[in-house]
Structure formats: structure tokens, C-alpha cells
Amino acid sequence: MSSDDAYSAFLDQANQDTGASKASTKSSSPAETKTVNTDVPALLQNVERFGTYTSEADEPFEPVSLKWGGDELPTDGSPSLLACIALSWIFLMWFGLLDEFKDLIGHGSSVEKWNDDDFDPEGKYEAALGAVREAGDGSAWIFRVELGRTRVEYYIVTHDKKSKRVVGVKAKSVES
Fold first, then answer.
1. What is the pLDDT of residue 73?
2. pLDDT below 50 — which residues of the chain?
3. Is 152 left (phi over 0), alpha (psi -120 to 50) or beta?
4. CA distances to 25, 27, 45, 86 from 20, in Å
5. What's the angle, vertex CA 124, arms to CA 122 and CA 125, rounded to 5?
């Protein structure tokens, strides 16, 4: 047997499918959050006009419209005089409201409330923020939802009390 034949046999054996690549490409389904279970307001149906959220993925905004019977969305956490007196109660209530938002979107991961300046320091997303405010009660809350080590979703939402729903937009982000 020539060395060429031996080398060719070696390459053939080395290139055989061992099934390892199939196992490594299999992954669990990506974490998903709920975004629409009721009618989307007209102001938020054409979200393409908001462009994309800039991250490593540059994903477009998506509409959010979820039924919700609560009276309020979580506040910005600014304590009133009463809250200063009962700070421990407010602290527990604040975390309870974040839990309500987790339940609303159907995801048990970490949720943080962000302010406008942290989310949009350069004013790139003012059109999205303005449309969300106009679609609801005039305010906009931003929630950062961790879906994994590098995957995050940002929700910009408001409360549409008349229709008993939370409406807004969400953006997917990859942050490594």
C-alpha cells in the first residue's frame, strides 16, 4: 500500500460524520416574551418609522399591546413624603410591581426599570417614546428584561386605561 493510499484512508476516516456537530448545533428554544394579546393602537402599528434599536443585532422595534387590569404601571420610584415615612413598604411594593410586569410579559427573568436618559442618552428614539406616550396616558416607562447572558429586550410602555391594556414597543438587543 502506498503512502498516498494510507493518507487518503486517514482523511476519509477523519472526515466521517461522528454526530458531534448535530449535538452541538442543537439548542433549547430561545427565551420568548409575550408582546401582543389584544388590538395594537393605530399609533403603534407602523413601527418601521422608529427605525432599529442600535446594538450588536440592530433589531427593529415591535409593537406591544397586552391586556392588563391594573390601575397603574410602576412609577419611577420617586418617593413622596408618605413614601419616605414608609420606605420599607414602598421598597416591597416596587419589587412587587416589577414582578407584575414579569407576569404580564410571561417571563421570569431579571427586570429593571430604566429612565429615558439611560435608555436614550442621544435622543435617537424620541419618535418611539413620543408615540408610546401619545398612545396611552401620556407617560412612558422603560423596562430592561434579561433573556440570557447576552440577549436583552427593552420595553417602552404606557397604560391605556380606557382599553385596559399596556401598549408600547419593544426592541431586542444583543449585548456582550
1. 65
2. 21-29, 74-95
3. beta
4. 9, 13, 44, 58
5. 125
